[in-house]
Amino acid sequence: MHIFQDQAEVADALASLTMKAAEQAIEERGSFTVALAGGSLIKLLGGLKGKNGIDWDNWHVFWVDERCVPHDDPESNYGGALQALLSDVPIPASQLYAIKESLCQKNEGAAQPCAAEYDARLKGLSRSILPTKDGLPIFDLLLLGFGPDGHICSLFPEHPLLKVTQPWILPISDSPKPPPERITFSMPVVNAAKKKCFTAIGEGKAEMAATIIKSAGDDPKIPASYVKGDVAWLMDAAGASLL
Ligand SMILES: O=C1O[C@H](COP(=O)(O)O)[C@@H](O)[C@H](O)[C@H]1O
């Protein structure tokens, strides 16, 4: 757990952690797989802009969850990351794995086909850049957010999807946070990743950050409590104020 003065310092620390994971993965396997959350995490991604020595050609970027909306919709997690970072760095466009836009022109009914298509696309990559173990993909790094209700990705408190283990990518059509139709990594896919990083910025995150960190794990009221393994926390002073 690392506590910094403000958001700018957290963004810088997030950039350093990501660059280190990327260097290690590229040295070991020749590619780096990172999956991003949406929401407030997006504003921290800009910390990677202008950094030297990043081998962007070998980065492959995914989304841990996505809202089934067109890419230019303000709710699109892909669209947000594009504006915050991805349009300014030379990652080949074919290595940005957004949901298939044509499947979500209308939000209603989009989650099922979007999830099936994303799941199939990821499974296709398991013969190249996405290694698997015990039938699960091993992403190098997940940059996670969490909601004030403790949700991560689009896995919400006491929702049946929390316990679903197959396929890798799940559709949700009744997200309590709008928009209702989304796709999400399953919890086993989250936990199979080599490293996960949570960020908590501002007073609004303080109470839930403290609850997650102090939880005994696997509390269905707090999906973030299920996250296991190599987990880093980067927080500003306000986000860490109730620890
Ligand atoms: O809807 C979502 O919410 C969570 C948390 O967002 P935040 O704005 O409260 O930080 C986010 O991690 C997830 O990716 C997103 O789709």
UniProtKB/TrEMBL annotation:
Residues 6-232 form the Glucosamine/galactosamine-6-phosphate isomerase domain. Gene3D superfamilies: 3.40.50.1360. It is an enzyme of class 3 (hydrolase). It holds the Pfam family Glucosamine_iso. It catalyses: 6-phospho-D-glucono-1,5-lactone + H2O = 6-phospho-D-gluconate + H(+). InterPro entries: 6-phosphogluconolactonase_DevB, 6PGL, Glc/Gal-6P_isomerase, NagB/RpiA_transferase-like. CDD domains: 6PGL. Keywords: Hydrolase. Pathway: Carbohydrate degradation; pentose phosphate pathway; D-ribulose 5-phosphate from D-glucose 6-phosphate (oxidative stage): step 2/3. One of its GO terms (molecular function) is 6-phosphogluconolactonase activity. GO terms for biological process: carbohydrate metabolic process; pentose-phosphate shunt. Its EC number is 3.1.1.31. Belongs to the glucosamine/galactosamine-6-phosphate isomerase family. 6-phosphogluconolactonase subfamily. This is Probable 6-phosphogluconolactonase. It comes from Micromonas commoda (strain RCC299 / NOUM17 / CCMP2709).
